[in-house]
Amino acid sequence: MRGYRFDFRSYRRRFLQPLITSHGVWHTREGIIIYLGNCGWGEIAPISWFGSETLEQALDFCRQLPAEVTEEMIFSVPDSLPACQFGFESALTEMKRWRNQEDFNPSLTSSPLPPAPCPSASLLPSGEAALNQWKRLWKQGYRTFKWKIGVDAIAKELQIFDLLTQNIPSTAKLRLDANGGLSYEEAQRWLQICDDIPANIEFIEQPLPVGEFSAMLELSNSFQTAIALDESVATLPQLEKCWEQGWRGIFVIKPGIAGSPTRLRQFCQENQIDAVFSSVFETEIGRQAALQLAAELSSQNRAIGFGINYFL
Ligand SMILES: O=C(O)CCC(=O)c1ccccc1C(=O)O
Ligand SMILES: [Mg+2]
């Protein structure tokens, strides 16, 4: 099998505002840009605290590869390296796309890429800062906002939430992302409040830690407000398992860490899952590949989580 010249380089960039979640504070995005054959750019952007490999594991994998890489090697990247699976497969797709265009393959050149699904959600800053910032984002055209919870004391967050829901327009949608940081009782409390208020709460994302699948299943059956799994379905094998175990709520899919795009596409086409696609704060290279999947597979009424201007 023919090999393609392979090269890689790591990058670092700082967030405009650090991302504050129940997992801690995130200042700098680090990842790897890979280069395959002719014009095959790809990106490996792991988030180990979210369930992917670490950056170091991804770098070690790149370092042990030969200078020429075959398709067989790309399709045998192990499931323990999901961000690498995404990076290598999307680089290969990108390379083939260019090669086919050079060959003037009419079947490919006459079918342009589908447009990115438009409405995107935007992250609000954590805490009280959300109260001043939603207006700026509204003016930029965002109609779905996402706010992190499970970061501060629940009483404080409920107070801010109350103000926020009174302030935002009634047509705005709000997503609450707990990043697995709530207790069962806190999750019940949030869900009850979301059920009771008139605001448009689209869902609560990952209320409980990854291990508490059956509790989240139970909560999703007890309240009207929807629950979206995120950390619980970070990678494709996890996604498949939650589906098999009966999750029919929302699935957040982050293509950058989910694993093989081919297998992800196949799974989504075979099963009618309610999918919300979301970024992993990758660069433009990973973003294009992830948006391609989002355009194909995203549920119709779900804004994608690919807000921009997260970086300096
Ligand atoms: O999903 C979105 O709307 C934006 C992306 C996002 O929030 C995110 C990005 C990287 C890591 C974790 C998360 C998260 O959903 O918790
Ligand atoms: Mg999330």
TrEMBL record:
An annotated Gene Ontology molecular function: O-succinylbenzoate synthase activity
Residues annotated as the enzyme's active site: 148 (proton donor), 254 (proton acceptor)
Cofactor: a divalent metal cation
Pathway recorded for this protein: Quinol/quinone metabolism; 1,4-dihydroxy-2-naphthoate biosynthesis; 1,4-dihydroxy-2-naphthoate from chorismate: step 4/7; Cofactor biosynthesis; phylloquinone biosynthesis
Protein origin, superkingdom: Bacteria
One matching Pfam family: MR_MLE_C
Role according to the record: Converts 2-succinyl-6-hydroxy-2,4-cyclohexadiene-1-carboxylate (SHCHC) to 2-succinylbenzoate (OSB).
Protein name per Swiss-Prot or TrEMBL: o-succinylbenzoate synthase
Gene that encodes the chain: menC
